[in-house]
Amino acid sequence: MVLFFLIFFLFLSLPNSSLSSFSFNSSKPLCHSHQSFALLPFINSFSVVEYSDPNCDVGEYSYYYYPLKNSWKMGIDCCGWNRVTCDTMIGHVIAVDLSCSQLQGPIHPNTTMFSLRHLQRLNLAYNYFNHSTISSKFGGFANLTHLNLSGYSVSSSSFTGNVPSEISHLSKLVSLDLSGNYDMRIKTPSLKRLIQNLTHLTELVLYEIDMSFVSTNCLTNLSSSLTSLRLTFCQLKGKFPDNIFHLPNLQILRVGYNYNLTGSLPNYNWSTPLKCLFLSETGFLINLPNLINNLKSLKQLTVSGCNFIGSSYPTFLSNLTQITYLGLSYGNIGGQCPWSLLNNTRLTYLDLSYNNFIGQLPKVMTNLTQIFSSNNSSNSQLVNKISSNVEYLILSGNLLNGTIPSCVYTIPSLLYLYLDHNQFTGHIGEFQHNSLVYLSVSFNNFSGNVESKIFSKLKSLQSLDMSNNPHLSLHSASATNILSKIHSLQLSSSNITEIPQFLRTAEYIGYLDLSNTHIKGNIPSWVMEVGKDSLYYFSVSRNNLTGHIPSLICNLNLDLRSNNLNGTIPTTFAKGYLSRNNLSERIPSLICNITSLNILDLSHNHLSNMVPLSLGNFSDSLTVLDLRSNKFNGTIPATFTKGNYLRSLNLNDNQLVGSLPRSLINCRRLEVLDLGNNKISGTFPHWLETIANPKTKFTFPNLRIIDLSHNDFHGLLPTKYFNHFKAMMSMNANNGKLKYMGESYYHDSVMVTMKGFYIELVKIPNLFTTIDFSNNSFKGEIPKSIGTLKSLKGLNFSHNNLIDHMPPSLGNLRNLEWLDISSNMLTGEIPRQLADITSLEVLNLSENCLVGMIPQGNQFNTFENVSYLGNLGLCGFPLTRTCDNVDGQQPSPSLSFHDDNFKFQEDDLKFKNGFNWKVVLLGYGCGFMFGLGLGYLVFSSEKGTRLVNIVYGERHNKV
Ligand SMILES: *[C@@H]1O[C@H](CO)[C@@H](O)[C@H](O)[C@H]1NC(C)=O
Ligand SMILES: *[C@@H]1O[C@H](CO)[C@@H](O)[C@H](O)[C@H]1NC(C)=O
Ligand SMILES: *[C@@H]1O[C@H](CO)[C@@H](O)[C@H](O)[C@H]1NC(C)=O
Ligand SMILES: *[C@@H]1O[C@H](CO)[C@@H](O)[C@H](O)[C@H]1NC(C)=O
């Protein structure tokens, strides 16, 4: 029997030696039966899931466990159970390790486990405890020295709620790990007590726990026995206590990614044993040479993105003789790369990205496997000597030129190679890397015709990005089994002329971007088979494709924009971008049966007939419906269902008639309502008046862009409702960061009459809010309430029948950039308050009956006569008619800011870093157009979207 146990135990034994203290000699006391009765129901309260947490495959957890249920059995001494350890004298269960046991289910406060009062070590890490709260009963394990309740941070956490203050009763704790439970919070009182009472603590691991409520002061009293403090991603803010750097035993300090944590590093008396210091992405003030001078024996250091004091030259690196892991990105370091300084180190990981290094890349550094040096200004060629152990070679965004040196093609262990956003030229050679997973050569100047067989050795390649090499083409005639593992292929803006043949055998392809190349003709039928079970994104937009659209694969994000395709609209996609084609067939009514339809963009086609009645029925998923610039007639479907998800409804430039359907009020999530250039009639919106209490039931709280221009609306402006456009009122405080409507799901675009020009914004910054009611027959006065819409950028009420004075509250619109209320019957003076709008760039008050003195100062010094034409009673600058001496100057004919015969043009500007502008301008028919002033141009790149503010007054030649 004992022999059986021995074999059994060895077979399942753990690498974790701490748990192997269990002794097998025959005098070993047996498990007390109440302990078996405590353990069994506990483990039986969980189910066992098939999967195991990713954390369980790495590091100290690089072992897999069988479900323990099989080894935990009544009738067998519980001290012999797998991963249960007993006290050898008395037989008390003193350690239980259930980490990585694939357990699923809640831990109830009444669970029998809490009766194991003698426990000294308890490890429940990496299971699936369904967001249980940590019971205060954990505080009852009086002799506990090690507690690990680490969560799995991949999908959701194991534990949630507050860390109970009773944890502070565990005064013998040496190691506490609650990390990875990102739903969990710890607050100042609990932490304070915990730190006061746990005086033996050597390891405190709380990363990813929400500590935003914690006052960092209470960390001041941490136990002097502490060796490891790990608080990454804890939302800590405030000043980090200085004394922690002096703790006499501290070896590991990780507090990175607490963006609002500040502090400074001491100049002397550092904790001498410190080996690992991770401060990246915090507000620590850092003087790099000083820091490294103090900590010469550091093995791991990352300070990327901290606040560096001054700039420095990399000579200080020679002090780091022990370093293995070094992250210095955004470090404000300049000068020659310090390769020779690091030559004899054990460095394996080096991140120097976003500095100002010049010069060459490393020659032979035998240990270095991960090199990150993107966005420096190394404007030299790559040297033809790179360590053969390199796995990561990340050199994006430098000024590297010339051809790729031959050694790069042969680095045997290479996994990731990023050469994008450089100035490489010449041909691309044959890659010899068996293990390469990711290859990017995008945004360079490579040229020539690449034979696809140069990829034939890349058996492991999953992602290939050759996009934005305008002279690079790819020839793949009959090649198959090339890149057969490929998941993502990007060839956009290159010179390819066909859909690569090797895709026929690419059974894992998920992302395929062939946009803006030179592919023409019909879409071959085999394309429908490509990535049959895997493809989720397919773009051939901006090519010369003709013929019918094949009916493609389900659940696809399908982008066919800007081709010459015709035929039946497929009914199989979730996101369909079919704008700017030759589509003229009726929208198939089947389209309304696609339950997952999320985006439907059919704009700029020749679609006619009625908008299918049931289009409003997509209650479950449709967020964007864009039918602009077609020939739809009839009325707007009256079938918008309650609770629908529509965020953008664009029916601009059709021939729609009738009035707005009442069911539009069900579109509570609308951000864009664009109905301009139709023949829609009625008072606006006639159903508003019928809703009892607009305060509580306001229809469109998120609306940012409303365009009703060029219709037949009449009646008074909806006075009360301006008080409720919440989204237009709030000045978006996104921490200075602009977000875009539809950020993750749609490149929203909309035409706006911005500063007198029709402009199509490819994405709509959240800050971009406009009202355009021009060219209708609205009457009455301009409501005072308009002044509440503080984030408004553009307001156009021109060409209506508005009367009375301009409300002075217009002056509250401090973000307004263009204001057009021309061609109405406004009287009285121009409110002086308008001069307070310092952002105003375009003003058109022409063709009204305004009188008196034009406000002076600020922007009003920049407006010209045309802003005021046709107002015979106005005087003062810029008119020659002075206010005391009206000289009878004749107004010239009015200037219309609208021209229906606008011309379409597409503008691709290249930004100096190689980013691609994507702005479509619809220009006014004059020789050049104004720079967009403070307007926003949006461009997107691999590195995310950016917004560029064009300098005020800059003029940009029309292409
Ligand atoms: C513990 O409590 C849960 C929920 O309150 C209950 O379902 C369960 O039966 C209880 N278990 C025991 C052993 O009392
Ligand atoms: C805790 O440890 C002490 C000292 O080793 C011992 O006397 C006591 O019995 C233990 N308590 C429990 C509940 O195991
Ligand atoms: C400190 O620990 C002791 C027992 O170890 C406990 O009685 C006491 O309540 C704890 N203090 C706090 C503030 O939690
Ligand atoms: C940092 O602080 C600012 C201002 O207090 C806050 O808005 C922001 O959310 C904080 N950022 C993080 C990541 O905690």
TrEMBL record:
Coiled-coil stretches are: none
Q: What is its main location?
A: membrane
Hydrolase recorded as keyword:
no
Signal peptide range: 1-20
* Membrane association type: Single-pass type I membrane protein
The protein's location, in the record's own words, is: Cell membrane
Its GO CC terms? Answer: plasma membrane
One matching Pfam family is: LRR_8
Q: Which controlled-vocabulary keywords does the entry list?
A: Cell membrane, Glycoprotein, Leucine-rich repeat, Membrane, Receptor, Repeat, Signal, Transmembrane, Transmembrane helix
Source domain of life: Eukaryota
Q: Transmembrane region positions?
A: 919-939
What PANTHER family does the record tag this protein with? LEUCINE-RICH REPEAT RECEPTOR PROTEIN KINASE EMS1-LIKE-RELATED, LEUCINE-RICH REPEAT-CONTAINING N-TERMINAL PLANT-TYPE DOMAIN-CONTAINING PROTEIN
Tell me the protein family, please.
Answer: Belongs to the RLP family.
Name used for this protein in its record: Leucine-rich repeat-containing N-terminal plant-type domain-containing protein
Species this chain originates from: Quercus rubra
